[in-house]
Specification:
nine-stranded mixed sheet; 2 domains; four-stranded antiparallel sheet; single chain; Pseudouridine synthase; alpha+beta
């Protein structure tokens, strides 16, 4: 595959096309940490007993790994013994859950606080909190546009909000997955085994994500990101089950239009893809264009998985303040608020925490 094709695929993945047209409103995000509020939903109740503590933590202008290290100091445990379901934005006010091994001597959770974080709740639990163990996230994002007060901004946003609520958005991995300027994308010739485990994980995740984004970008370009094609693997909204689409019919098309089912794309790894027809041909073409990234994923022992191409934006609402509009919505786990925001407004800088 030519270098030009590789460069084009990577460019499409890092600056992907819009589904609803390029936004015409420019707005500032994260003027203050309080302008970007995230609340994590676990999706299960604490066990009430066990060898661990589940801690509900609110952090402000602090990153998740740093808070985890501070909690390890408080609980007198190793940093790797602290669990959390996912990374959360730094330039934000976020509420998320952590777990620590239950200390031998009782500790007052009120003392587990530091610059930029505090523990709100503590519950006994039976195991370490694993990555991905959450149902979703709720967002409240304040948008500020020069020259527009909140009511005018809300009026200008209304048509795009209606479209996003009805059709969803492409389920792109956000720019934070790749780092500033794509810094997390390892050279395809690099020896990842020499890197620390955490950095190796970032590089592999970025490689897998750039392949997915490139495939999704191609399907946004041809308009098939929101409709089923022959050979697709379709996913049930909000669930991990998939089924093969041999030939789309009116029933499947109607369910897809209602956002009940979605086409999926590859999370690259070893094994044969289960798609067929033109879908398989497209995925193989993208795999050739980004052969180095695909080889990294396979060599690391990753196996083929699937991810929905479309993201349904739940409970989408917008209210006006005198000088801003506040956007509220809920997303399922593993999805990025940036995928929603980029379809609504232009930002003067990259949306990276």
């Amino acid at each position: 595959m030519s270098t030009a094709a590789q460069d084009a695929a990577r460019t499409a993945a890092l600056a992907p096309p819009y589904a609803h047209g390029a936004p015409v409103i420019e707005a500032a995000l994260r003027t203050r940490a309080e302008d970007f509020v995230v609340e994590e939903e676990l999706g299960f109740a604490p066990a009430g007993a066990g060898a661990h503590l589940l801690l509900k933590v609110r952090k402000t202008d602090a990153n998740t790994p740093w808070v985890a290290r501070e909690l390890a100091r408080w609980a007198s445990c190793r940093p790797q013994d602290v669990g959390y379901a996912g990374l959360k934005d730094r330039r934000a006010v976020t509420t998320q859950w952590f777990s620590v091994p239950r200390p031998k001597a009782p500790l007052d959770p009120c003392t587990a606080r530091g610059e930029g974080f505090e523990v709100l709740e503590s519950h006994a639990h039976n195991r370490k909190l694993p990555r991905g163990a959450l149902a979703g996230n709720r967002f409240a994002v304040r948008l500020r546009a020069a020259g527009d007060g909140g009511p005018r901004l809300l009026e200008r946003l209304a048509p795009r909000l209606t479209a996003v609520a009805a059709r969803g958005v492409p389920n792109y991995f956000g720019p934070q997955r790749f780092g500033r300027g794509g810094a997390n994308l390892a050279p395809v010739s690099s020896d990842l085994a020499r890197l620390p485990a955490s950095e190796r994980g970032f590089r592999l995740s970025a490689a897998r994500s750039v392949v997915f984004n490139a495939l999704l970008a191609a399907r946004v370009t041809d308009g098939s990101w929101e409709r089923l094609l022959a050979g697709d693997l379709a996913s049930l909204d909000g669930r991990g089950s998939f089924f093969r689409v041999e030939a789309p019919d009116e029933t499947l098309a109607a369910r897809c239009a209602r956002l009940e089912i979605h086409p999926t794309g590859p999370l690259w790894g070893a094994g044969e893809a289960q798609t067929g027809a033109g879908v398989l041909e497209l995925e193989r073409r993208v795999g050739r264009e980004l052969a180095g990234e695909c080889a990294l994923c396979t060599a690391a022992g990753m196996t083929q998985e699937r991810r929905s191409l479309r993201l349904r934006v739940e409970e989408l609402a917008c209210t006006a303040e005198p000088d801003a509009a506040v956007l509220r919505f809920r997303l399922t786990r593993g999805s990025f608020a940036t995928a929603v925001l980029r379809e609504l407004v232009k930002c003067p800088a990259e949306i990276i925490p």
